[in-house]
Amino acid sequence: MFSFLLPNDLKYLEGKILRSLLKVLTFSFLGLILFIPSALADNTANRIAGKNRYDTAVQASKKGWSTASTAVIVGGGAYADAISAAPFAYQKNAPLLLTNANNLSSETKSRLKELKTKTVYIIGGTSTVSYTVENQIKSLGITVKRIVGKNRYDTAAKVAKSMPSTSKAIVANGFLYAEPIAIIPYAAKNGYPILFTNNSTLNSYTADALKSKGIKQTYVIGGNGSINSTLYKRLPSPIRIGGVNRYDISVNIAKKLTLNTSNTYVSNGYSYADSIAGAALAAKQNKAIILTNGENLSKEPRAFIGNKNIKNFSVVGGTSSVTSKVMTQLKNPAVGKTIFIDPGHGDQDPGAIGNGLQEKDVNLDIAKRLNSKLNSAGAIPVMSRSNDTFYSLEERVKKGANANVDLFISIHANSYTSSSQGTETYYDKTYQSANSQRLAELVQPRVVSAFGTRDRGVKTAGFYVIKYSKMPSVLIETAFITNSSDASKLKSVTLKDKAAKGINDAVSAYYR
């Protein structure tokens, strides 16, 4: 087709085509390299921590301020003062720092110098921040102002009166420190003060603050056990945000007020100093903070993370406050995802029988191991049965649907002739065909590797539980009970545990 071109023209054209092709291939290759890490990335979880509570508050301040003409300081154990101080600090564009009651903490002293602070507001009385500390701050050339009342209710009321005018306020129990922490970012951003009561009485300080500020509406934090219904009805146009526990309350606050979860702060629901410092930083960055158990990611935050598909976290507090296990759970892309585990057969329906094994027992053993691993990894596993009970196929599908699960995994063992052997994973094309296939293709090689069985591949079939489950669903035939070699592997505790780990790893890989 290029017969009309001269020889030199042909060489030029051939060279140009070759160079263009190489260019396309090079960019395609680079694009693939650049694409794969982000596509296969785990969640991110960064830790903000210091060697103690004072240093953790300092480290949190470094994430929000390089300089600050104004800072707010409270006693390291004066949690009520710190909670009421946080929205005030936000209004002053000031970091919230902590100190020892009797001596200015060295970390805080250094930070005040770094920030080039000119004015410090001390919130609280001399029992929490002494005159000695006040004088030590003044010796740095810093002007000190103190906001203090006769008690925590009065101090919070005086802080409220020092804030700009607003028609709304937060009301919480002044002794249940964990409950209002998660609302600090919302209160701070909107300029709402946080005021305190006890369970049943509206003290005069809070009542006066509500009246003098002209508060028309209140967000009441905590259930009836925190602020009872009689007191609740006395508050201006109250809206209650409660929960079954402190973790649930933090989640419900984020839900109710639609807080920004693009990078969610996480802290220990019992490490008040760390979590309040984290909430003050979350306010600065307009993010949500949720609370959890320091040893294990609590159920309520898990479900919230899974439902909101949150991928990025900032954990406030050291490993004594929030363990490395929680960090690992947060980094797992399957964190908070609800996974249905269906051990096939049960009770009067033993399934396949052979070589001293009953399928129902093998299925349940692997399923329990998978349940434990998924839970430890941060997912929310739900089992169709956890003992030798029989449920119909229809009941199993219904259980998965009612639990609103994200994935459905049915575990079985195979049977045929004594020479048949190997592992195979099935999916159905009725619902979620592509996603079910992808899950099957992640599960199959991992189970094969765990058991060392013959790879019989990924297949399609209309098995009831995967045909009628509307979420991505797979059915795993782990090995043949009727084959002596396969059966010996199904008897191995070690190999069954490896198979459960393989399925767990496949679930994480599915969400990468």
Helix and strand topology:
Layout: H1 7-39, E1 44-48, H2 53-62, E2 70-75, H3 79-91, E3 96-99, H4 106-115, E4 119-123, H5 131-138, E5 143-147, H6 152-161, E6 168-173, H7 184-190, E7 194-197, H8 204-212, E8 217-221, H9 229-234, E9 238-241, H10 246-256, E10 264-268, H11 272-284, E11 289-292, H12 299-308, E12 312-316, H13 324-331, E13 338-343, E14 353-354, E15 357-358, H14 359-377, E16 380-383, H15 393-402, E17 407-414, E18 423-427, H16 433-451, E19 455-460, H17 464-467, E20 473-480, H18 484-490, H19 493-510
Parallel strand pairs: 1-12, 2-3, 2-4, 4-5, 6-7, 6-8, 8-9, 10-11, 10-12, 13-16, 13-17, 17-20, 18-19
Antiparallel strand pairs: 14-15, 18-20
Helix pairs in contact: 2-11, 3-6, 3-7, 3-11, 6-8, 7-11, 10-12, 14-19, 16-19
3D structure, described in words:
- The protein has 512 residues and is α/β, with parallel strands linked by helices.
- It folds into two domains: 47-331, no CATH class; 338-510, Aminopeptidase.
- Helix content is 44%, strand content 19%.
- The chain has 19 helices and 20 strands.
- The chain has helices spanning 7-39, 53-62, 79-91, 106-115, 131-138, 152-161, 184-190, 204-212, 229-234, 246-256, 272-284, 299-308, 324-331, 359-377, 393-402, 433-451, 464-467, 484-490, 493-510, and strands at residues 44-48, 70-75, 96-99, 119-123, 143-147, 168-173, 194-197, 217-221, 238-241, 264-268, 289-292, 312-316, 338-343, 353-354, 357-358, 380-383, 407-414, 423-427, 455-460, 473-480.
- The strands form five sheets. Strands 16-13-17-20-18-19 form a six-stranded mixed β-sheet. A four-stranded parallel β-sheet has the order 1-12-10-11. Strands 3-2-4-5 form a four-stranded parallel β-sheet, sandwiched between helices.
- β14 and β15 (357-358) form a beta hairpin.
- α2 (53-62) runs parallel beside α11, α6 packs parallel to α8 (204-212) and α16 runs antiparallel to α19 (493-510).
- The longest helix has 33 residues, at 7-39.
- It is elongated, with a radius of gyration of 30 Å.
- The relative contact order is 0.09.
- Mean pLDDT is 93; it is low at 1-39.
